[in-house]
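[agent] plan:
  1. take the single chain provided in the ticket
  2. run structure prediction with default settings
  3. attach structure tokens to the ticket
  4. add a short note for the reviewer (M.T.)
[agent] executing step 1
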Amino acid sequence: MSTPPLPEPVNHTAELVIATIFGVMYGLKTGDYFSGIFIGIVAGVLLSGLHTWVVVRRRKRDGS
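[agent] step 2 finished; step 3 output follows
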């Protein structure tokens, strides 16, 4: 018996770059670098989670 191939892993590079730029811009604009770091991390997690959700949903729709 052969097992089905595993799906390709989701690449999160674009989301993390966008979140980093967003956090840096916020930190530089407000002068509060700690909040900029926190906002960048939160934005990265949210964007990555959203992208994973969209990819998995698309894979299920195309596979069924």
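[agent] step 4 note for reviewer: Residues 12-62 form one domain.
[agent] ticket updated
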